[in-house]
């Protein structure tokens, strides 16, 4: 097996803990739709790395640390497209163990559609001579779950999605397991390939203070979409974003007969 040059795409999103803490404890700023109803308001809300991307970094670092790939790991490069604040998640990724980072600068609000991201990543793969791309199966803001599949299509590489386990076999073969209804499914493919990660793959580590300090000295290359020969073409238009209707309060019944009557009244029986 040839040495791995792993590319790990990551994204800066609203911190998932904000939604969790609001839902259960009401402790943080509630995510809300912006005034133009084109998306979620991001100003004044805590951001962090997309949780599925944390899994991708962790898995890449574990492959190196545990020496599970026969050819070893030559390089782990993280890449993110976004405004200047996207460098925060890139530094976090390097503190977790990535060797270097690429920041593709995009203006605040100029979000990229999955196809544009996939084209950007294809150019980055060619530039970095990557032979393995590990990325989250989806980002928690748009939940599109399209980028990995589009990237594999553009590259003409095999893909394995929603990985819950990654193993390396003989030669350039890779075994990837994912959970399916009623069990698990394992596929086998050869490098180069694209793998998307799911939540059961691993438990991401916390970046230690010494590693956070070391990450400040690791190389971070700034680029633009034009440097990669990619344009931010918009093919979709968000017509309207609205909050879900508030839930109606429940009711109590005295006994089973009352429950049946209520269900009939609601048309459930």
Number of domains: 1
* CATH superfamily placement: HUPs
- Please list the strands of the largest sheet in the order they lie side by side: 7-11-6-1-4-5-12
Q: What is the first-to-last residue Cα distance?
A: 61 Å
Number of strands: 12
**Broad shape:** globular
Count the DSSP helices: 7
Our estimate of the beta-strand percent is 25-35%
What fold name stands as the CATH topology?
A: Rossmann fold
CA-atom Rg in angstroms: 22 Å
Helix-and-strand structural type: alpha/beta
Assign the CATH architecture.
Answer: 3-Layer(aba) Sandwich
Which series of helices and strands comes N to C? EEHEHEHEHEHEEEEEHEH
Mean pLDDT, to the nearest integer, reads 88
Describe the model.
- The structure is a single chain.
- The chain has 269 residues and is an alpha/beta fold.
- It has one domain (4-11, 48-265): HUPs (Rossmann fold, 3-Layer(aba) Sandwich), CATH 3.40.50.
- The protein is built from seven helices and twelve strands.
- The protein has helices at residues 16-25, 51-66, 87-96, 114-128, 147-155, 209-215, 256-265, and strands spanning 4-9, 12-14, 47-49, 73-82, 100-105, 132-136, 159-163, 165-168, 173-180, 183-190, 193-197, 220-224.
- It has a seven-stranded parallel beta sheet, with helices on both faces. The chain has a three-stranded antiparallel beta sheet with strand order 8-9-10, with no helix packed on it.
- Strand 8 and strand 9 form a beta hairpin.
- The termini are far apart.
- The relative contact order is 0.18.
- The model is unreliable at 21-28 (pLDDT under 50).
